[in-house]
Amino acid sequence: MYPVRDCILAEKNSYSFTRWGLCRFNGDDLLQVVFKMLDHDQDELTALRQRVAELEDLEIQYQSQQVALEAELIELQAKLNAADKNYHSQADMALTLQQLQKEKAERQQVEVALQDSEQLLRLAIDAAWLGFWDWDIFTDKLIWSESHELMFGLRPGSFDNTFAAFLACLHPEDRQSVTTQITAALTNKTDYKGEFRVIWPDQSLHWIFAQGKFYYDEQGQTTRMFGVCMDITAHKQTEENTKQLTSQVQEQANLLNAILATSVDHIYIFDRSGHHRYISHGGAAVLGFKPQELLGKTLRDLNLPNGFAEQVENQQQAVMASGEPIKDECQLVTIEGVRDYEYILTPLRNYAQSIEGVIVVSRDITSHKKVEKSLRESESRFRRLFESNLVGVAFWTMNGFITDANDAYLQLAGYTRDEFAVLGKINWRELTPPEYQHLDDRALAEVQATGVSQIYEKEYVHRNGKRVAIVLGVALLNDFQDRGVAFVLDISDRKRAEQERDRLLQTERIARQEAEIANRIKDEFLAVLSHELRTPLNPIMGWAKLLRNRKFDEKTTKQALETIERNAKLQTQLIEDLLDVSRILQGKLSLNVCPVSLVMVVQAALETVRLAAEAKSIQIHTVFDPNIGQVMGDPNRLQQVVWNLLSNAVKFTPAAGQVEIRVKEVDGQAQIQVSDTGKGITPEFLPYVFDYFRQADGTTTRKFGGLGLGLAIVRQIVEMHRGTVKADSPGEGNGATFTVRIPLLVINEPVRRDEHESLTGESESPNLSGIKVLMVDDEPDIRDLISFILHDYGVDVTAVTSATEALDELSQSLPDILISDIGMPEVDGYMLIRQLRKRSPQQGGNVSAIALTAYAGEINQQQALTAGFQMHIPKPVDPDALVRAIATLVNR
Question: Rounded CA gap, 702 and 300, in Å?
């Protein structure tokens, strides 16, 4: 019977492990290893292990019963053998069989319990996700369970069954440590236990916990190693997450402690009964305590004003009742003196959101209060400045608008308070002329960099178009990067004073320079005059003395007399030039006007200079237009003009040179042009060639004589004939050309008296009777004078004071002539004539107009004609000129 028992025991011990080929090992050893592995999840498998222990007890009972049953079976077998011999013992046999059947049923129950135990063991293995191995150390054959292979990311049956293959699955950094641990367990004859990482074929990383047991032969040599392993990747990840969470919590705690330690705020935490649960170091220090001295105390326990303690306690109760924070301010006597504090009470909630106390955070705002007071005082002072209108004050934005301004600023820009209220804002960029925009850009850059700009000057364009000189400075408002304030001061009076000062300085400088030049010219002229007068006197006096004291032959006497005559004529000419200049300067040079043929005048002048030209072998070429008409002028004075020009040409042209004179009609005028191949005129002296007492060379080494008056006399005479004269020269050594133009005589043109002319008889006055004239001038004296002058000629004059009245009058009736002043307020003469010219002819668009103005410059005359006037007469008005202008426009 013992072999059967041995077989049963062997079957029992290997029952659950044959599927992995591990039947050589004792089941208790396997369970021991498994449960050691499961120690990692002790709490979860406690119930399972208890159930397995109960089954083991049942198994032990079953084994004991099995041994007893086997003994009874042996005894029963003996009784059966004897039964054949003794019939009376059959009854005992039946009783015995009945007992055996009962024991068999009990055995079946034990087998069912063992099957349940195996299923529970399998359940524990599957739940723990365990893998098993069996390593034959002598043959190096390593057998893995399927779950073991799956745990290493391998397909079942794909493992190479060697220790080297096992190491190949490990992370390279863990191979040496695993080998070292196994070797140490072998050496010390202890169980192996360790953790390592494996790399799956998909390169994912997994953590494995392994525990193994070594078995030895009778000589104590290690023969096999059996063990289990478990995937602890999730456990490792949980550990890592726990570490990270712990680290984050610790960092947050450290950060909170640092914030509380460095915060300027004072923190107090009270429970529902008003006792301190926490107080920051700063909060305790301001009250003269340490934090631990205040814990558990209420505000009434401290040396605080009763009113303040009661106020805060009431606020605490209100916060806990409503759950809403409360903000307030107070003033306390601290160890630093009387200080102002701002504090806020907020509810302290637990994890269930129930209010279990109040958190109070306070901050010292004493400095802030002082700043607020200073700001209020500063704002008050600024408001007084703003409303005083001593300077212009404007609030501006970076995008180019004035959002608020005082009356002084609005006045600079040309707006009233009511107009600004309607507009709401003004574009300050439109107030600045383009040439000053770079100054604004520079100021804005300074403001953005430093908050304030340097003071600078520029101009504003007033709403009426006038320029206003200003000085301004800009600054950003506090806490704003796109808004600022500007202070503007009108410096127009100062600028005008500066301009007047500069003008006076410039005038004085020019006058001083002109005086210096005049003195120099005067000195040079007196020296030249002395030289020019004494030079002809020398031969005159010398030959006269010789003729009186000595006898000469006829030829010498004739030569002496000719010399005396020639020098006497030269001296006479010098005196005549001086007298002409004197007459010109006094305005007494007169003309005897009559129709004159310029060809005859030029020919007479040519005869005068012919001898001088022949003496230097200079050829004079003449080109005359035979059809040129006559001019109104003084033939003697015109001959003097031509003679001066020809004399200069001969004098400054070297021997064998050429002089050319042309007479022709150009643009309705007679033109006389004298050209030479002589010395020429330098560009520096060309603008002064017609000035009195000016010579290109006034030194004692000059080559050419004369007083420098001839060309000045030429210009004066030509202008008296209402003509022009100009000089041109390519430069020194390249000759010169003088061009004279005089108006041609119109057929049947009456002879009129010029400004400097005197006639033997008066010309007839034009008949202006019945002519209607509209006179516009804002000066009453001018209106009265013009009306008086024109009334003598029978003119019907209507005088108004402004352009607006003139336009209204033109809408009522059309005059023959419009006479308008230029400089008038609001609408000037230029604007009036432009509006008139836009009208139709029936509305007066073609009415003839005369500009009568004190703006007498050539540019003003051109501007008036361009605007639409037919004539320009400067003030003070010449009555005859005005009458002639009207007669000309109405063709009378």
Answer: 118
Where do we find the tokens 């990311």? 153
Question: CA 175, CA 169: separation in Å to the nearest integer?
Answer: 9
Q: How far apart are CA 38 and CA 410, in angstroms?
A: 92
Q: Which helix (H) or strand (E) holds 890?
A: none
797, 814, 819, 841 from 844: Cα distances, Å? 17, 6, 14, 5
d(CA 890, CA 870): 12
- Taking a C-beta distance cutoff of 8 angstroms, is the pair 447, 484 a contact? yes
Asked if 428 and 394 count as a contact pair (C-beta separation under 8 A), the reply is: yes
pLDDT digits (tens, 9 = 90+) for 3-54: 322 332 333 333 333 333 333 334 444 445 444 544 544 454 454 455 545 5
Which run of H or of E encompasses 610?
helix 598-615
pLDDT in tens, 735-761: 999 999 999 987 544 444 443 443 333
Q: Where are the alpha helices (DSSP H) in 550-597?
A: 554-586
Neighbours of 890 (CB within 10 A): 17
Enter the DSSP assignment of 87: G
Residue 72, Cα to own-chain centre: how many angstroms? Answer: 114
- Number of neighbouring beta carbons within 10 Å of residue 818: 26
Mean pLDDT throughout 816-842? 89
**Residue 343: strand, helix, or coil:** strand
Identify the DSSP state of 723: -
Question: Cα separation of 573 and 647, whole Å?
Answer: 12
Question: What's the CA gap between 621 and 380, in Å, rounded?
Answer: 92
Beta bridge partners of 338: 333
Q: DSSP H helical segments within 84-145, as ranges?
A: 90-128
Question: Beta strand 817-820 with 326-334: parallel, antiparallel or unpaired?
Answer: unpaired
Q: For the range 827-835, what are the long-range contacts, defined as Cβ-Cβ under 8 Å and sequence gap of 24 or more?
A: 827/802, 827/803, 828/803, 829/776, 829/803, 829/853, 829/864, 829/867, 830/863, 830/864, 830/867, 831/803, 832/776, 832/803, 832/806, 832/807, 833/867, 833/868, 833/869, 834/867, 834/868, 835/803, 835/807
The 3-class secondary structure across 26-51, one letter per residue, is CHHHHHHHHHHHHHHHHHHHHHHHHH
Q: Can you give the pLDDT at residue 107?
A: 64
Residue bearing the bigger pLDDT, 663 or 607: 663
Q: Quick one: pLDDT at residue 858?
A: 52
Instruction: Kindly state the DSSP code that residue 873 receives in the 8-state scheme.
Output: E
Residue with tokens 């032990």: 60
What tokens does 776 get? Answer: 């516009």
DSSP string computed for 755-823: TT---SSPPPPP--TT-EEEEE-S-HHHHHHHHHHHHTTT-EEEEESSHHHHHHHHHH---SEEEE-S-
Q: Which has more pLDDT, 250 or 764?
A: 250
Q: What does the DSSP assignment read for 422-454? A: HH--EEHHHHS-GGGHHHHHHHHHHHHHHSB--
CA–CA gap between residue 22 and residue 24 (Å, rounded) = 5
* Residue 624 three-state SS: strand
pLDDT at 725 over 90: yes
SS3 label, residue 114: helix
